[in-house]
């Protein structure tokens, strides 16, 4: 009997710990990426959304908790639907399916990029969400496809700017004969770059991460 009681206590503790972990994960998600109504400022542009230092939603599910991003997307969708006066016109199952579709198809986007989309949708950037007896969820899914195209194109533009800057640095290195470790050290001295133990490629990689949302 004593052994059984201990096993029950251990099982209860494990369940409590698991529950606490889930609560902490939800708190982290909604604190790090507030709902639109809780944000102090709107995301000003696609560039701001892209350059925000975030993980993709697929990485958040992997590193924080599986399924946490679907819960977050559902909450954002409910806010959008309430704002549009359409929440009463949509079924719960439709909200769930839309959230899952977004999570599955746009797994490489970040929460900030998705927040930008939801804010743009609420502003009417993708037309009006029809409200009648029912609404067509395809309107939302078509809108996010348009937004995703814009975000990917902007990512490509920023990436090209970064690559062009890298090519200029490498060209300067070559033209001045700044090759190898000694050349890199001389370059750092001339540019006032201190505490830089990385070789040239490491420095360029770090600079790229700071300018662009690279994981």
Q: Which helices and strands, and how do they pair?
A:
Elements: H1 2-32, H2 46-51, H3 57-63, H4 68-83, H5 92-105, H6 111-122, H7 138-175, H8 180-191, H9 200-211
Helix pairs in contact: 4-5, 4-6
Distinct helical segment count: 9
Order of helices and strands: HHHHHHHHH
How much beta, percentage-wise? under 5%
What is the radius of gyration computed over CA atoms, rounded to a whole number of angstroms? 24 Å
- Major beta-sheet overview: none
**Low confidence ranges:** 12-21, 208-215
Alpha-carbon distance between the two ends: 53 Å
Give an overview in words:
There is one protein chain. This protein has 215 residues and is an all-alpha fold. The chain has 9 helices and no strands. The longest helix is centred in the last third of the chain and has 38 residues, at 138-175. The N and C termini lie far apart (53 Å). Mean pLDDT is 79; it is low at 12-21 and 208-215.
Descriptors:
single chain, mainly alpha
Summarize the structure.
With 215 residues, this protein is mostly helical. The protein has helices at 2-32, 46-51, 57-63, 68-83, 92-105, 111-122, 138-175, 180-191, 200-211.
